[in-house]
Amino acid sequence: MNKEEILLKSRAEENDEGLRDAENNGRKIGITAFYIVEAIIIIFNWCTNQPNYVPFSMLWAFTAAEAYPKYKITGKKSFLATTIVGGFVAILFLSAHIINVLR
After folding, report:
1. How far apart are CA 76 and CA 98, in angstroms?
2. Domain edges within the chain
3. pLDDT tens for residues 11-44?
4. Which residues contact 71 (CB under 8 A, 6 or more apart)?
């Protein structure tokens, strides 16, 4: 395969590495922003004596969802454990929130 054939094949795939890089960088910035906002909400709730069930539920659900694809790719049991424990803890916090609202 010569250089021209490789370039034509790459263009036909419509796989723009620059766009993929921008998406990955945006995702990293978004994750950082999520953690910062999450921390601000938790601190605010602690200062105002509000329960933190919802922010902790979101945090653990996010952690579990982020670990699952890593487990699928690497097969590492630590990622599987993070997925299971994170999902379970997210359900517990969400349940605590529902119980708290309904009482």
Report:
1. 34
2. 1-50, 51-103
3. 667 667 778 888 899 999 999 999 999 999 999 9
4. 77, 79, 80, 82, 83
